[in-house]
Each structure stands twice: as C-alpha cells, then as structure tokens.
C-alpha cells in the first residue's frame, strides 16, 4: 500500500504590518457594565455632568443639525472668538480639538516621537499612557505622593529627552489639586524647550483659593499649555470638544496637527451656546460641589477614608478591597471606575444617583478570606 499523500502545507496568510508601538497597547476601557437586579443603573464611572444640556444649547444643536450636509468650519473661528472673549485670551493662543483628549493627541503629534520622553504623575488620567505609547515616545511615570503630584520628583525626572510633561490639576482619579506657588516653583525648574501641559478638565469644581489657575500662569511662559474641556462642567461629553490655550507658536503647531474636520459643527455650535449660558453653568457646578461635599461627609460618617476632592468625583483608596467593593456596587446598579488593588473613583452625579451609591457603600461587607 502506498502512503497517503502528504497534506498540503498551508502558509499563514501574510498580515499587514502593525507598528510595534501598538503591541502593548490595550484599548481605552469604558466603565464596567452595572445593573441592579431590578434593572436600575446609576452612571458614576465617567465624571460626566448629570444635567442634560440647557434649552439654549439644545436649540443651537438643533439649528446646527440642519447644516450637517456641509463640512464644519475647520478653523472653529466663531468658537475661538467666543473662548477668547470669555477667558480674556488672544485668539491666536487658542486651538480647538475633538475633546481635550483629541487636543492631547495633537500636542503629542506636535512634540513627541520615538527617542523622546513624556513625563507624568501616576496614577493619573488613563489617556496619557495610551496616547504616549501611540506617539512612540517613552513613558516616564512618577508615583503620586499621598495622592498628590510629587513635583520635586517630577522635576528631578526631567532629562534632555523630555519633550512634554502632563500635570493633571485637579488630578484624575485622586481629585487632589496643586497650589499656585508649588506649581510656579515646578515650572521654573522645567527647561524652556519642554512643554508643560496643565490639564484642567475639572477646574470649574475647584473651591480652594490657593489652587493654581493655569491661564494666569501663561504670561511669560511660552512652554506652558492649558487644556480645558466642554465634557465635564459644560455637559457636552457626547459631542467631543475641548481646547488648549498657549503660546501662539504652540497653538499654531496644534492646528497643523489637527485631523481635518475632527471638530464637528454641532459641537462647535453647542460649545458657543454653553459658554453663553453662564448662569446655568454656575448653578450646575454649585449643585455638584454641594453634592460632592454631601457624599464626602456621608461616606466619612460611614467610616470610609475619602480623599478631599476638588473635582466632580471622589477617590476611595481601598487597596485590596477594591474589587469586592466595585462588584458590590455593580450589583446595586452603580457603575464606578475601579483600579485593581488601588481604589475606586466615583463620580458625583444627580442626588438620586449619589444616594444609590451611598446606600451601596453603607451595605458593603468585606468578604473574609
Ligand atoms: C475627562 C477628562 C478629560 C476630558 O476629555 P475630553 O476628551 O475632553 O472628553 C481630559 N482630561 C482629564 C484628566 C479628564 O479626566
């Protein structure tokens, strides 16, 4: 009997080459799904505003919707002139992007590349390591000290390869805020050719008189850029729009690095309307700050150790109990952000959402093991 014919060797189909910078990259993670047995859901994972847009903002979006057969204004001219007037900054110092995460990517496109370093505190905003990896630059992460940026250690970690430093103020996820004097001392130590990005996504919620306001630090510091967003206090997270304010040369570089038409017309119109709704913004932020203090007080009364927060979220450094606590909250329908072995970040939402979280926290019993 002759041997059966050898099976044909099938070579793997050639695959497109993917940049090695992506090998270790995990996709951005949205919050854990949570739903109580009764199907209730309390979204406290993403630091969104619990308020729907003000009527004037909805009208602006509606009007802009009638024009979506046309491309948006790539220069965002009307919005930039509104921002310029509102924050008293020259128009040529402003650049708009697809969320402040979009502006962050534009900043990295402008200054980072393989062989350079990007420095930030850790733990901080999760977009920093993801976008830094994408840029091909090396990540230099300086541990927080008691939940606060360790500015001395960060200054000491700067090398001649450092192109960009993120300072998240208030810090996500710990909610801590840096004082102006400390930040000024730090900025004085950073070489003039290294960009410092002050990410102020939560600045509207700060109630600490000594806290730094990045816009006041810009004069005379061409290497400082302030990042602001419409996603949090302004309540436009779903439309993706944010902006940077910095030296005109930096703003110009950002405009070059912007993906064409990535800031859509609805977002631009809504942002202009939201900037004009100053009273609605004030009242909403005031409510959220009051809720933050109520949730903080109640948690402390329950015996939890909660970091005082300058943002619209609270940090519980639960360590080993983190997973159990997050699971317990998820089964009550409360979605929050958990960082295994470290702690949880819970947003300050509507009073009802916050009550659901407080009830879940009160009924938590750590598993014994
Ligand atoms: C939520 C958040 C932002 C906002 O990002 P957008 O892209 O504007 O939605 C920026 N920075 C930090 C630290 C944040 O937590």
Automatic annotation (TrEMBL):
EC number(s) from the headed UniProt entry: 2.6.1.57
Cited Gene3D superfamilies: Aspartate Aminotransferase, domain 1 (3.90.1150.10), Type I PLP-dependent aspartate aminotransferase-like (Major domain) (3.40.640.10)
Sequence ranges assigned to domain Aminotransferase class I/classII large in this UniProt record: 43-359
Catalytic activity reported: an aromatic L-alpha-amino acid + 2-oxoglutarate = an aromatic oxo-acid + L-glutamate
Modification N6-(pyridoxal phosphate)lysine, positions: 232
Keywords per UniProt: Aminotransferase, Pyridoxal phosphate, Transferase
Keyword RNA-binding: no
GO molecular function: histidinol-phosphate transaminase activity
Keyword Transferase listed: yes
InterPro entries referenced in this protein's UniProt entry, alphabetically: Aminotrans_II_pyridoxalP_BS, Aminotransferase_I/II_large, ArAT, HisP_aminotrans, HistidinolP_aminotransfase, PyrdxlP-dep_Trfase, PyrdxlP-dep_Trfase_major, PyrdxlP-dep_Trfase_small
Broad EC category: transferase
Names of the cofactor(s): pyridoxal 5'-phosphate
Lineage top rank: taxon: Bacteria
Function: Aminotransferase that catalyzes the conversion of aromatic amino acids and 2-oxoglutarate into corresponding aromatic oxo acids and L-glutamate.
Assembly and binders: Homodimer.
Family to which this protein belongs: Belongs to the class-II pyridoxal-phosphate-dependent aminotransferase family.
The name this protein goes by in its record: Aromatic amino acid aminotransferase
Species the sequence originates in: Streptomyces werraensis
């Amino acid at each position: 009997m002759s041997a059966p014919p050898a099976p044909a060797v099938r070579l793997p189909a050639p695959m497109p080459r993917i940049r090695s910078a992506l090998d270790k990259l995990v996709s951005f993670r949205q919050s854990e799904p949570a739903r109580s047995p009764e199907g209730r859901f309390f979204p406290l994972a993403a630091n969104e505003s619990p308020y729907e847009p003000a009527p004037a903002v909805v009208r602006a979006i509606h009007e802009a919707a009638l024009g979506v057969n046309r491309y948006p204004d790539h220069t965002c001219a009307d919005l930039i002139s509104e921002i310029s007037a509102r924050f008293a900054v020259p128009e040529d110092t402003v650049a708009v992007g697809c969320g402040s995460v979009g502006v962050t990517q534009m900043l990295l496109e402008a200054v980072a590349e393989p062989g350079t370093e990007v420095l930030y505190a850790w733990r901080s905003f999760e977009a920093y390591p993801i976008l830094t990896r994408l840029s091909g630059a090396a990540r230099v992460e300086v541990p927080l000290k008691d939940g606060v940026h360790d500015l001395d250690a960060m200054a000491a970690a700067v090398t001649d390869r450092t192109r960009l430093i993120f300072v998240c103020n208030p810090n996500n996820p710990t909610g801590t805020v840096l004082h102006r004097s400390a930040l000024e001392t730090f900025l004085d130590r950073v070489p003039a050719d290294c960009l410092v990005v002050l990410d102020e996504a939560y600045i509207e919620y700060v109630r600490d008189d000594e806290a730094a306001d990045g816009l006041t630090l810009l004069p005379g510091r061409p290497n400082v850029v302030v990042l602001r967003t419409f996603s949090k206090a302004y309540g436009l997270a779903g439309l993706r729009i944010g902006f940077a304010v910095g030296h005109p040369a930096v703003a110009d570089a950002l405009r070059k690095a912007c993906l064409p038409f990535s800031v859509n017309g609805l977002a631009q119109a809504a942002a202009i309307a939201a900037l004009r709704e100053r009273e609605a913004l004030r009242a909403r932020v005031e409510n959220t700050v009051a809720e933050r203090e109520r949730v903080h007080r109640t948690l402390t009364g329950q015996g939890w150790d909660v970091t005082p927060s300058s943002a619209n979220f609270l940090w519980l450094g639960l360590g080993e109990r983190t997973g159990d606590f997050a699971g317990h909250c998820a089964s009550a329908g409360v979605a929050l952000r958990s960082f295994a072995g470290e702690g949880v970040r819970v947003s300050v939402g509507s009073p009802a959402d916050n009550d659901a979280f407080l009830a879940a926290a009160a009924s938590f019993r750590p598993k014994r093991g």
